[in-house]
Amino acid sequence: MVTTAGILPVCALLTPCRTGAATPQDGNVIVISVLRQIGLWLGRLLVAGSRWGAERLPIWRWAKIFFRASFLPEQNYLIILAVVVGILTGFGSVGFIYLLDQIAEFAVGPVASLLDVFGPANLVLLPALGGLVAGPLIHRFAREARGHGVPEVMTALANKGGQIRKRVASIKVITSSLTIGFGGAAGREGPMVQIGSAIGSAVGSWTKLDPHRVRTLVTCGAAGGVAATFNAPIGGAIFAMEVLIGRVQTDFLLVLLTSLSSCMVARSYLGNYPAFTAPAYDLVSGRELPLYFLMGLVLGWAAILYVRALYKAEDLFSAWRFPDYLKPAVGGLMVGLVLRYFPEVYGAGFPAIESALWVRLPWELLVGLFVAEFLANCATLGSGGSGGVFAPSLYMGAMLGGAFGTLVHVMFPEWTAGSGAYAMVGMAAFFAATAKAPTTSILILFEMTNDYRIMLPLMAATVASVYQSHRMSPFSIYTLKLHRRGISYPGREEAERAAQRMAAPHDSSP
Predict the structure, then answer these.
(1) d(CA 425, CA 456)
(2) DSSP output for 206-269
(3) C-alpha separations of 34 from 22, 40, 387 in Å
(4) Mean pLDDT (whole number) for 465-489
(5) Can you name the residues that pair with 187 across neighbouring β-strands?
(6) Residue 145: C-alpha distances to residues 103, 195, 468 (Å)
(7) How far is CA 431 from CA 299, 387, 444, 470, in A?
(8) Distance between CA atoms of 94 and 178, rounded to whole angstroms?
């Protein structure tokens, strides 16, 4: 039924046509008026409809309806989410690296200038200041952000259905930037793993996925973090599968897509460059392989020594009756004392690694830098500072491997490569032993250096280092924390049986 309210406005518009001769100008006026009236009616209808939708359906749910209403198969839906997680993680990585660079410039610039009154001791105070700011932030807002972060991600995967608090990502960005930028000896890959995982968890929770799918997106985010940090998409994906999941499974496609998309975002802003530039090294002679294998045994022993020292430092700081939020400042002061004599361990230490690869450091300094990084990293992370263990492992492996290479090249100069080749191989072998992740180490070193010719020495040293580390401890630097907390993780039963076999001779001794 048409009401009079709807007829009267139109009749009023037509009235001039009845009272006089119709002209084209009058016709235009009538058409414009009718169109204006229709526009007003449509406008009122749209306003009423949008108000109804806003009251009953918040705007953030419209996006989910769009995805769901397209009737995508589940796997295609997950592919879209994996790419979204990768893009967000890539932007998070770029933002984190930019913030870290800005804070580092601020620390060595204006802040260091203010501390010039202390003379050479100004470098000692910088890490302490970083810890003094980062410690209260971690203690107040997100205690999961302390340390290297990967065990916390593994804990969320095992016990919490992949749920990670949303604030963890922002707090991890800020505190890690403060810790590393002010000179703390830690890596940036640990923070990026935790940041990417928090993004994956947030996307999974926002889209109301089941716990299994949320865990998948958390793993995807971790892969994207490593890939963007080191420009290594394949290595990032394998890291997530080998370290976090413990095996490669059907979700590897999603993890690889996230790693790829995250790496592409990072490359568009940071450039497509390898993480390290180094000369091209090769196997000089087949007689070198036993030397690389021997170096792997040495590095495997040193890696387990480092893992034990790091957890011992955490235990000592935890047992110390001192405010937790001030402990990172004390650890930073200890790092500053190391920097007083070895400034090359400042921050992530990438320039020193490249110097070792280019054979610019004498063997005495290589050994000294290994010890310095060993102590500084234990002080940084043991006290509760925020950072990773990947870059420090590469650092220590490069220094110890370079020192070993210098020794063997002096003994056998005709058929051995320079110390830079051993430093390059030592990077991967040391991390492989700490993380019990040989596949990740081999692939990520290849992607970081773009050099495939060193593959045979790399495989020999990595096999030896992992073999030695398994003989000394069945736990990696990541799973040891979960074992101490009694949390289940992939391979836990096998690791605990191995630990019991190792402890048996000591228990049966008189």
Answers:
(1) 10
(2) HTT--HHHHHHHHHHHHHHHHHHHHT-HHHHHHHIIIIIISS--TTHHHHHHHHHHHHHHHHHH
(3) 16, 10, 68
(4) 87
(5) 388
(6) 18, 10, 31
(7) 9, 16, 11, 13
(8) 16
181-190, 290-299, 316-325, 467-476, range with greatest mean pLDDT: 290-299
Q: Are 234 and 447 in contact (CB under 8 A)?
A: yes
Tokens 């592919």, residue?
Answer: 79
Closest listed residue to residue 342, CA positions, set 294, 376, 388: 376
Provide the 8-state DSSP code for 245. I
Tens of pLDDT, residues 310-359: 999 999 999 998 988 899 999 999 999 999 899 999 988 889 999 999 98
Give the pair of three-digit tokens for residue 259.
Answer: 């790693």
Listed residue (286, 235, 247, 277) closest to 431, CA to CA:
235
Please tell me the predicted confidence (pLDDT) of residue 364: 93
Residue whose pair of structure tokens reads 């039924």 in the numeric block: 1
List Cα–Cα distances, 54 to 64, 66, 68, 257, in angstroms.
15, 16, 19, 35
Q: Look at the block and give the residue holding tokens 């007689």.
A: 287
| pLDDT value of position 148 | 75
CA–CA separation, 2 and 6 (whole Å): 7
Q: What is the pLDDT of residue 34?
A: 54
Instruction: Judge contact between 503 and 479, C-beta under 8 A.
Output: no
For the chain, what is the radius of gyration of the CA atoms? 30
Q: How far apart are CA 510 and CA 269, in angstroms?
A: 63
Handedness of CA 135, 137, 142, 145 (dihedral sign): negative
The model's pTM? 0.81
Specify the 3-state DSSP secondary structure of 330.
Answer: helix
Sequence letter at residue 132 = L
283-303 pLDDT tens trace: 888 889 999 999 999 999 999
Residue 203 tokens read as 């996307």
Q: Does the structure show a pLDDT above 70 at 246?
A: no
Q: Highest mean pLDDT range out of 32-36, 83-87, 452-456? A: 83-87
Distance CA 311, CA 189 (A): 19
CA dist 106 to 62, 202, 302, 375, Å?
Answer: 43, 32, 35, 25
User: How would residue 466 be classed by pLDDT, with cut points 50, 70 and 90?
Assistant: very high
d(Cα 365, Cα 284) in Å, to the nearest integer? Answer: 25
Tell me which of 251 and 39 has the higher pLDDT: 251
Distance of CA 355 to the CA centre of its chain: 25
Phi-psi region of 248 (alpha: psi -120 to 50; beta: other; left: phi over 0): beta
